[in-house]
Amino acid sequence: MLILRDDDTATSAEPSVVALGVFDGLHRGHQAVIELVVSLARTRDARAAVVTFDPVPAVVLAPTKAPRLLATLEQRLEGLAALGIDVVRVLTFTKEMAAESAEDFIDRVLVREMRALCVVVGEDFRFGHDRRGNVSMLRELGPARGFEVVAAPLFGEGERWSSTSVRQALERGDLEGASRVLARPFSLRADVEHGDQRGKSLGFPTANLTVSPSQELPCEGVYAGAARVDDRWWPAAISIGTRPQFYENGELLVEVHLVGFTGNLYGQSIDVVFLERLRGESVFADAEELTRQIARDVTKTQEIFDGFSDAGFQLLE
Asked: Which domains does the chain have, with CATH numbers?
C-alpha cells in the first residue's frame, strides 16, 4: 500500500476512488465504507484510496473536548491495507488547514493529488473552513472536476456503528459491546517502559505500557487478554488502574503479565488484545491475599486464551 504524506512530491499515479474520514478504530461501519470503495475502484479500473488526518481535526480545533482515540495511525494504516486499500493520503491537520476553504481542499487534495473519479463520504461528513464542505457541495462541484459522489449510509444492526459507541462500551467495561461494533476484540498498541518492579516482587512480572493521554482504554479493572511479541501471541493478564493496594492517589497504569514469557521487553512495542473483564480494582487485606487473587486471574486468563488461541487474534477479520 502506498502512503502519501505532506513531504511527498508524488501524487496518485492512477485515478482513484477516494474515501474521506478519520476511520478511528476501523469498526464495522468503516469496514463497510472501505468495502464499497474497493468494489467501486475495481469496477472503474482505479485505485482504492483513503484520505485521512493526523492528528485528527478535533485535537487541533477543540483539544479539551477531543475524544480519545481507539487506535494509533500505524494501526489505522495496517487495517486499511488489510482491507484492500491501495493508497492512503495522510494529511497533517493544522490550524492553517482548518482555514482552507472546502472548495480549495477539493481542488488540491481530491482533484490534483488523488485524481478522484469517485468520492465516497458519510452522509454527515463535514470538511473545510467552517465545515462548509459536505455531500451536497461535492455533488455540485464534482461534475466539472471529473468525479462523482457516493454518500455512504449510516451502517448498523439496530444501532449505529460508530467510534463513539465503541468508546462508550469500553468506558463501561463492556468488551462484548465494543467487539460487536469493531467486529474484533479491542486492541491496544504501546511501548513497554520501566516500572517499579512491584509485580515482579509479587511473583508476576509485568510489562508497563507507555500509553498516550489521547488513547482510549477500557475502564479500570483486571482483564484477560493476549499480547503479541515478535509475531507470537501470549496469554496476558492485564491491569488498568491506580494500584490502590499500594498508593492512595496513584497514576493510572496499564500493566500486562505475559503468562509463560521470559525475556526483556523494554522499549519494544506490543499489541494487547482485551478478551474478557475479570473483575474491578480491589484492595486486599495483605500482599498474600493479593498474590492469591492474581494467581486466580492468571489461571482464568490462560483458560480464556486457550479458547481463542486458534483464532489467531487478527486485528481485522
From this structure: 2-152 (3.40.50.620), 186-311 (2.40.30.30)
